[in-house]
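Q: Can I see a sequence and its folded structure?
A: Here is a first one.
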Amino acid sequence: MRGSIVALVTPMHADGSVDWERLRKLVDWHVEQGTDAIVAVGTTGESATLGFEEHDLVIREVISAAAGRLPVIAGTGANSTEEAIRLTRDAQKAGADACLLVTPYYNKPTQEGLYQHFRAIAEEVEIPQILYNVPGRTACDMLPDTVVRLSQVPNIVGIKEATGKLERVQDILSRTKDGFRVYSGDDPTAIEAILLGASGNISVTANVVPKCMAEACAAALAGDGDRAHTLDAGMRDLHQKLFVESNPIPVKWALQEMGLIDAGIRLPLTPLSTDGQAQLRPVLTAAGLLEA
């Protein structure tokens, strides 16, 4: 899988229940807009507040809606190894193309603990697995040495590296086995990461401008830095303001304003504040996503 991979929101009704109709429509929209793959129930999909059954149901629904038109990567990480194995096994049974596994959060394992955690999941479930390092959210940083060790596990096929540190992307690419893929998890630096050799971007911004993100990633993958940078420049303010409050608060509000989803979001996350709306609205308007 290469290119623009949207970290899809999970649409919800105002009462917080999953909006299955809107979910299916979002998948159709991303297919039409040229998105290369979908991550279902990642951080942006509010994985932390979906129950086990809901988690599995959302993944199955996205796979069903995609109907083979683009790959689906299931978010199945957890801070419990046993729980992550269960979620990953369920995603494989549902027909996911791969799984995305975040580093365990809150319990702060050592690097050896991280290695043993991810190796155990990979040995239990044969589906291709992508590591996910986002220390800003998990308080757990998986260092390149550990990634290099894990890259030797046959079905660990890549990493979503969300630190935004381009030197780390280069380091991982230079020391992992051939075919091991690095994906950016940081929209502001994603195009540079792809030009350095990353395989794509697992993106929040792609939720609102999927076509532009897909075209920018395709240009970068083709080595056309000028076009990739030009397209990326048009998304620069979105990259920033979609994180004016904790993700996915701003992106869900943006999609609501665009008429693509309802207003639902689950506690402890709350709707975008008045100040956040005042910062994000003009950026959406400038991007042509809202009427002036």
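Q: Show me another, different protein.
A: A second, unrelated one:
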Amino acid sequence: MVRRFLTALLTAISLFAAALLTASPASAASLTQVTNFGTNPSNLQMYLYVPNTVKPKPAILVAVHYCTGSGPAFYSGTEFARLADRYGFVVIYPSVTRASKCFDVSSPQALKHNGGSDPVGIVSMVRYVVQHNNADAGRVYVTGASSGAMMTNVLLGDYPDVFKAGAAFSGVPFGCFATTNGSEWNSQCANGQIIKTPQQWGDLVRAAYPGYSGPRPRMQLWHGTTDATLRYPNFGEAIKQWTNVAGISQSPTTTDRPQSNWTRTRYNLGGTVQVEGISIQGVGHALPQGGMAQYVIDFFGLSRA
């Protein structure tokens, strides 16, 4: 039930909000709402941040909010707009209008290429920015927290032809939250009780866009070990999924500790990090925290000239 989900999130959201307050909102430009941006079956709102100085044919970052949140809240409370000022890309902030303020990551429509619901509206936003802001359709990325992290997984599964990479903070694998009863909530998945083989997880992604044979997006996964809302086993299941989709081993190519309570595992494909998992010891459902956004931008390659 959505009500149960929102109740479970109260403590986590308060922690998350506290972390957001430490981030500095962008000041060089302002967030603008865009209307009539294209096909939008679930009545999403679109907010766009364009820095005063952008690169020629700038990259696009889609930044997807958590449950109970909004596009403007994710803009003001995370570092992505400030990083856009620094590196010259543009940021789309989708915003849910349904009562739960959660993205649809569970319906059959949402889990299929061009199937309908929120993913279609978000891709319409991307296409609008490509057309109206001279953005680079070959450099489109997505990141999100909680419900937004789940949507990050969904978008990479539904639209591997649109998104080049994603970074999911405290999410679940593609298809894990699937329901057929109209509910937005899947307790078994949230509790980390859905365990599949890498092949089974990969098959769920491949079934979202039958016949697609092009390159698959890169994926960066973040999860706190004490997450009590979307529990930590989902982190390992997502690594199984995206390494299988990429056709690479579940054994990490490298393991290191960028910070004392972080463990980062990387899974390479032809010398490129295709999947990266960052486990945060002792942290709950309160990601991203200060400084993590820079790691996302580095993973995407947006911090390079």
